[in-house]
Design goal:
This protein has helices at about 25-40, 55-60, 80-85, 90-110, and strands spanning about 1-5, 15-20, 65-70, 75. It is elongated. The chain is α+β, with helices and mostly antiparallel strands. Strands 1-2 form a two-stranded antiparallel ribbon. About 45% of the residues lie in helices and about 15% in strands. Bound molecules: zinc ion. The site of zinc ion (ZN) has 7 residues, from helix 4. GO terms for molecular function: zinc ion binding. This is Zinc finger double-stranded RNA binding domain-containing protein. InterPro entries: Znf_C2H2_jaz, Znf_C2H2_sf.
């Protein structure tokens, strides 16, 4: 593969890949198409070659990060996250959190004062 860097000025993804299987025919298989791409880019035309997608390498490097609130843990990786969600430890923490949340809500509801109505006018 030969990579052409067209710099930040080009209005297209800057990386193109050319198949360099036959080195003896380098000029015909690599140089000419490469020059054609550059030429069409300079003319503002769409190059005949498709730009290489580079996002694949990025994705394999970056593993997804999940924060598990009830467990107060950070899980890295899609698979690890799926496993964690099914784990007993997670279910335990989840139940515990739901219970405490429910208790807190009930406590708030019963403890809310009724004298907060705005119709209390004090005679002056
Ligand atoms: Zn969890």
């Amino acid at each position: 593969m030969l990579f052409l860097s067209l710099g930040p000025g080009a209005n297209v993804p800057p990386v193109f890949g050319l198949d360099v299987t036959d080195v003896s025919d380098w000029e015909k298989t690599v140089l000419t198409p490469a020059l054609e791409v550059l030429d069409s880019l300079q003319k503002g035309e769409k190059p005949a070659l498709e730009p290489i997608r580079v996002e694949g390498a990025e994705r394999s490097n970056k593993r997804s990060r999940h924060e598990c609130e009830p467990c107060a843990r950070v899980i890295i990786g899609e698979l690890e996250w799926a496993v964690h969600l099914k784990s007993k430890s997670h279910q335990h923490h989840l139940k515990k959190k739901r219970k405490s949340e429910l208790a807190a809500q009930q406590h708030q509801a019963s403890a809310s004062p009724c004298d907060a109505s705005p119709s209390t006018e004090s005679p002056s």
